[in-house]
C-alpha cells in the first residue's frame, strides 16, 4: 500500500457503478468520520493509476477534501482481468442474515452506514386484502386524450376561452357524444363555433 | 424453493402498493396507470409488490400478438421486492399473480413486461418464469447526472433542462421486452429471440451491474 496525492489517481471512465445522492452523502460523511477505514481498504488502481476498485470512494474522498489517499497497485493485469476485477469487486456474493443484524446491530447505525434495511415494521397482512378483482373487458372506449405543447400565454388564452364558454347557454346544450369531460366538451364547442364561422 | 413457498399474494390498494414501490423499486417511481396491485407477504408482513396496468403504448404493443383485442393483455409494469424475501420469491410471486389474473380476468390472454437493461437487469426473473424474449434494443433515452447520480428519461430531461448542463450524460443500455402467454394458442407476431442473444448483444445485466449470462452460468 502507498499514500499518493489524490490528483494522481484517475477515476475510471468505464466504471459501471453509480451511486444515489443520499448514499453518496453517507459515504462522504463516513470517510470524514472514519478516514482510517481507507487504510484498511485502499483504492485499487492499475499501472496507469486508473481506479479498478473504489471509484465512488475516490469521488467521496475528493468531496471530503482529502489531499492524499492510500492505494494498492494491481500490477500486470490484462485488460480482461481488469474488467473482471471491476465487476467481481462489486458483486455481493453473500447475503445478509437479517435476524442476526436485527439482534446484534442498531438499525439506525446500519442505515447511517449505507445499508438498505428492510422496513420490518411495515404493512401487515390483513383480512381486507383478498384475491378477487375485475379488469375491464371489451373494445376500446370511444374516447381519447390529446396532448399539446403550448406557450404559457397560449395556454392561458385557451383556459380562459374554456372557462368563458362554460358560462354560456350553448354550453348547456352542447353535443357531448357521451363524453363527461367538461373541458373536452367546452373545447369541442369552441371549435364547432369556429368551424361554423368559416362556412 | 424453501421459504418462498410460504409467500402469500393478495390484492392490495394502490396507495399501499405505490408507497412500497417508491421505497423499494430501483427507479423510485410508480407507473400512474397501474390498476392492479399484488402485495407479497411473508411472516404476515408486506415485502413485495407487483403492479399491473394497461400499456402506455397500447396500440403498438397489441401488434405483438396476432389478432389481439383491446383488452386481451396487461403489462406487468413494476415489480419491487425487498431483501427480506428469500431466493425464488420473484418467480413464485409472478406465478401466483398470473394464476389470480387467469381466475379473475379470464379475458387476459397474455402479459407484457419490459426489463430495463440500462439500470436494472436483463430479465432473469422473466426467463425463469416462462416469458418469451421478443425485443432487445438499445435504449438511448436515459440521462445520468455524473455528480449526483440522478437519472431522467428523455422526455423529462428536455422538459426540465432549459439550459446546458455538462453534468448530464446519456447512459448507454438496453431495453428488453418479454411476453408470457396465458392463452397458449396466441401467436406472437415477431421473432422470439433466443436468450443467448442477450450475451451476443452485450446486454447482460443483473442488479444494475453489467454481467453476462455466461458469467452467471444461467
Describe the structure.
The complex is a heterodimer of chains A (199) and B (218). With 199 residues, chain A is of the alpha+beta class. Helices cover 45% and strands 8% of the residues of chain A. In chain A, strands 1-4-2-3 form a four-stranded mixed sheet. In chain A, helix 1 crosses helix 3 and helix 7 (152-166) crosses helix 9. The longest helix of chain A has 17 residues, at 182-198. The mean pLDDT of chain A is 84. Chain B has 218 residues and is an alpha+beta fold. Chain B has a domain at 2-108: Gcn5-related N-acetyltransferase (GNAT) (Aminopeptidase, 3-Layer(aba) Sandwich). In chain B, 24% of the residues lie in helices and 33% in strands. Chain B has seven helices and ten strands. Chain B has an eight-stranded mixed sheet with strand order 1-2-3-4-5-8-6-7, sandwiched between helices. Chain B has a two-stranded antiparallel sheet with strand order 9-10. Chain B starts with 7 loop residues before the first strand and ends with a helix. At the A-B interface, helix 1 of A face strand 1, helix 1, strand 2, strand 3 and helix 3 of B.
